[in-house]
Amino acid sequence: LSAGQRFALGIEYDGSRFHGWQMQSGVSTVQESLERALSRVASHPVRVITAGRTDTGVHASGQVVHFDSHSDRPLKAWSRGTNTLTPPGLVVTWAIPVSTAFHARFSAIGRSYRYIIFTRSMRPTFLSGKVTWDHRSLSIPLMAKAATALVGRHDFSAYRANACQSRQPIREIRSLKVRGSGPWVWIDIEADGFLYHMVRNIAGVLMAIGSQERPVGWAREVLESRDRRAGGVTAPPHGLYLTEIRYPDEFKLPPATPACRFWLRRFRSSDASR
């Protein structure tokens, strides 16, 4: 490999084990853990660029990063070798060489999240930290109907956190679907990009509508207000998964195979068999 070869990695992680993506002093983060492992494999300091930073408690099954290295290593060293050095809850799923034209963040043309809600009267045990628990019964038809108002290109000022540093609030939601089975409700959302806490704020509004605490039209009213104070409570991070980053075909990245979709299908099959 030539000096300065660029690599792209697919990674997945359990957000409940880390204090978010971004490196912080004195706490374990995904970035710090991944860079430490890659640096040992490369035998030089490695810095990674991520497609999107995630908060404490937020998971990823389709995160993408890139880094540059002058070290000559077999591809398996960047994946399997790195995995022998990462802590539990962080795994490299694939590694490929890419051109220097590739940028994990700026080359992305779409991002997808899944928000998973588990509804029953008692809190979960084994799923604690992996899903958002709601003791209320949620109406999927009401949530799905409300969600249609958010599809398209809009000013999402009312759905972003006050601390959001994005220079402009315009985003395009390409798909927003609410589905479920038994005690499960999941929200799948794809957009050209997301504002800080945008998905969790959308989930909070839709959950309030699903519980019939708010009318279906409230989702549109919040959107048109362009005022965060008009929105509801920000939904917890536990049920949020970054499931896919989309790139132009020219980069030939492996297709996303989000783990959370697999295990959710298992739960759906289990519910159907009862």
Structural notes for this entry:
The chain has six helices and ten strands. The chain has 274 residues and is α+β, with helices and mostly antiparallel strands. Strands 1, 2, 3, 4, 5, 6, 7, 8, 9 and 10 form a ten-stranded mixed beta sheet that branches. 37% of the residues are buried.
- Structural class by sheet pairing and helices: alpha+beta
Look at the structure and give the mean pLDDT: 92
Annotation, overall tally of beta strands? 10
* Helical coverage, percent range: 10-25%
Total helical segments: 6
What is the quaternary state of this protein? single chain
Poorly predicted ranges (pLDDT <50, ≥5 residues)?
266-274
**What would the principal axes of the Cα set say about the shape?**
globular
SSE order in H/E notation?
EHEEHEEEHEEEHHEH
Q: From the alpha carbons, calculate the radius of gyration and give it in angstroms.
A: 19 Å
How far apart the termini lie comes to: 54 Å
In percent terms, what proportion of residues is strand?
25-35%
Largest sheet: 10 strands, mixed
